[in-house]
Amino acid sequence: MSAALLSVRDLSVTFTTYGQTNAVLHGVCLDIPAHSQVALVGESGSGKSVTMKAIMGLLRQPPATITAGRIFYDGRDLLTMPDRERLKLRGTAMSMIFQDPMSSLNPVFTVGDQMGTILKYADRRLGRSRSRRERLARVHEVLAQVHMREPERVASSYPIMLSGGMRQRVLIAMALLSEPKLLIADEPGTALDVTTQAQILKLLKDLVTERGLALLMITHNLGVVRETCGYVYVMNKGNIVEHGPTAGLFAAPREDYTRALIAAVPRLTGGTRFGRQNEVRP
Amino acid sequence: MEFALFLIRRVLWSLLVLAGLSVVIFVIARGMPGDPARMALGPRASQEQVDDLREKLGLDRPLIEQYGLYVSGLARGDLGKSLLTERPVNDDIRSTFAATFELVLVTITIAFVLGVPLGVAAARWKDRWPDNVVRLVAIFSAVTPSFFLALLLQILAGYVLHVLPTTGRLPPTMVFSPDLTGLVLIDSLLQGRFDAFAEGLRHILLPATALAAATMGQIARITRASMIDVSSQDYIEASRAFGVPEPVRVFKYMLRPSFVPPLTILGLEFASLIGNAFVVELVFSWPGMAAYGIRTILQKDLNAVMGVVMVSGVFFVMVNLVIDVLVGFVDPRVRIRGRR
Amino acid sequence: MSDEAVAGVRRLSNAYQNWYRFSRNPTAMIGLTIVIVCILAAILAPLITPYPEHVGAVVNFRARHLPPSAEYWFGTDNVGRDIFTRVVFGLRVSLLLAVVVLGTAIPFGTVLGLLAGYYGGWVEIVIMRVTDIALAIPPLVMALAVAAVLSPDLINSMMAIAALWWTWHTRLIYSITRQIRTQEFVEAAETLGAGRFHILFREILPNCVSALAVKTSLDCGFVILVGASLSFLGLGIQPPTPDLGTLVASGASFLPDYWWESVLPGCAILFLALGFNLLGDGLRDLFDVEDVR
What we know:
The complex is a heterotrimer.
Chain A: E1 4-17, E2 20-33, E3 37-41, H1 48-56, E4 64-73, E5 76-77, H2 83-89, E6 94-97, H3 111-126, H4 132-145, H5 151-155, H6 164-176, E7 182-186, H7 194-211, E8 214-219, H8 222-228, E9 231-236, E10 239-245, H9 246-251, H10 256-263
Parallel strand pairs in A: 3-8, 3-9, 6-7, 7-8
Antiparallel strand pairs in A: 1-2, 1-4, 4-5, 9-10
Helix pairs in contact in A: 3-4, 4-6, 6-7
Chain B: H1 2-31, H2 36-41, H3 47-56, H4 63-75, H5 89-124, H6 129-143, H7 146-160, H8 184-190, H9 194-231, H10 234-241, H11 246-258, H12 260-268, H13 270-283, H14 289-298, H15 302-330, H16 332-337
Helix pairs in contact in B: 1-4, 1-15, 5-6, 5-9, 6-9, 7-9, 7-13, 8-9, 9-11, 9-12, 9-13, 12-15, 13-14, 14-15
Chain C: H1 3-23, H2 26-43, H3 45-48, H4 83-119, H5 121-135, H6 139-149, H7 154-180, H8 184-191, H9 196-232, H10 244-252, H11 260-287
């Protein structure tokens, strides 16, 4: 298990609001080996977003408190390392793809400006330096990698000028800017229509496999899991209730909760939903 | 392109507001009972004198015709003639408006320069002591009548500390006339008269501060609210996740989208700022429109009063147009979609 | 328990909950206390002031320009009248002004806002364009102009302010109405054939009440400030009846030596406006209507 790129051990988190403390994670453990794609599934409120935020270091403390546990990245404990060290990893070694393409881009700055700023400070944290022009070239390059046809035009656009699918691609490009090893994707594309979402997931899957990135896919949609991830953790009420290779888990779920989740996936026949063959059979 | 259309629409709209304003003003000045010529000349003037003035200024014609004359005058930028001195109202207002304009300009500058950082600080340290201090400042500046603040500043800075002059625009002994733009602070720089600039600045500081307080409090409050609103947006969380440092997040990513609400508020409440300017000018003997307006009101010179109200309205409309353009610059959504 | 009784208990406990939350908000409680104290003082002025006769044209030259003391809490003015007494009576004028202006402006502005928001179309265009025009006129300048045409007294000034003030309520009610007119309970009432009157005043208006309460409280403060500015300029109630703005203005000629003659009445205006503002702020937190100013 120590070979895992990211390893969460016994993570417990509580939230304190209005003087009341509620435990939201109860000793969560999960492992993401390098170059592998792992899903974290659960309903809304199951604790998957809190887990994700804890990994990324985005939990607001207070109201949240990490009461126990460790999070290892590449063998180093993120929770005990100095903030400065941790900041170095954020957005560079591990990066995040945000869920809602409509609200995750700043409406009053151009895409290129926002990506350039991210790159600038990522470079600074890593002790690199790049000129403004080099940064812009990198932005164009990454935009091209997410299959944007006119990267220059996209970079000089404001978010409002782009379609939802294009904005989601921009969000993916943002995550790829400084070549992270681990991508955490928070239900990418759920805000989009089904066809566009399928394209986005295909793109994401291709990018991850081409580059050999590790992926933590956070979702409530088991159809997405089946398409993109080889291993699944199922989460309920702050606990990991079941985990295992995707195929096995789908074929023989042990927990009632997992069975219920699987039963909730709409039955689809026909081949186009995720851009590949398939018939989603619960 | 959309933005140009947006601006054209706003300009047309402003013209409509001004047209409506002209009706309102005309109805007040001419539709009310009483004869303006008689009012202006007073009860002791002979009927002949009154009739003479009525004929000269067209007050004997039907109201519709008078309104037509009034509006065609306005369209040419002519506010008519004083009922008392028969001097063009334009001339009198022009010489006083520049002083009011300068005061309001400095006031807005002070209000933004102080209000925005206060709002940002309050939002950044929400529910901690900076927030409480700013809330207190905002509330007190909102509830202190500007004339009272003007008096307090006068006592404090003028009589107790003896640091700043408390009346006028320039020292009475100084020979300087702002001929180019009418603004002391600008003309003095253009003419290289730095002594006049320094004095002008010293003189405007107290009245502008007294006038700015209410607006500043309002701006701090709105900036705080919109910063807090923006800070919970996904895109701010995203920039945090990508490791953009906090100062950049606050001063770039949060401040810019938060800038629109205070601008809009300034536009909406600009009328009450002009109203307060009247009182503050009076306290500081500022040679602006207020002194002229109040004198003409006491003299019942209705044409001049109409002029003053109309110019206030034009001032309001102009400032709002400038704000529309600024909002377009700050927020590309307005620029691209052509609406707020 | 019958349904009605249940609803009654629920309403009661709702009111109690609101009061509980409100009373835990220190600024709101301070505001409420100030407002109540000022209103009581204004009503009971002849009973609680030390020299009620000083409201009129009393002259007592031996006691002129006395600084604040145990005998004259706020000092005396240039003819020897007790300033504290005159300030307490001055509250009456300020509060009366707020009541008259808002009492006229709120019903008028609310109805127009409801109509504009609910009907849309040309009704909306006409009403909202008129509010835009009214917005361009400074209330203070308007009051001055009206004073020039009629005569400079309190009633005319109040009417002039009220004639512009309704626009703010119209805008507020309009924006709320526009948001809720497409909501299902309104559409349900329409489908059931409820009359226009019922929909406007029984379905939509109750949803505006909390925003109106906040706005009214804040407005009381602002109307009082505008009124004080007017009387400061000499357009208030005619002497010798005291009025806070006039007190500040007449005291101002004796600055800085007899500072209390203008500063203390000025503080009274501030205090009164502060009370209404804090109360409005507290109500805003309570009702969670962030965008009402």
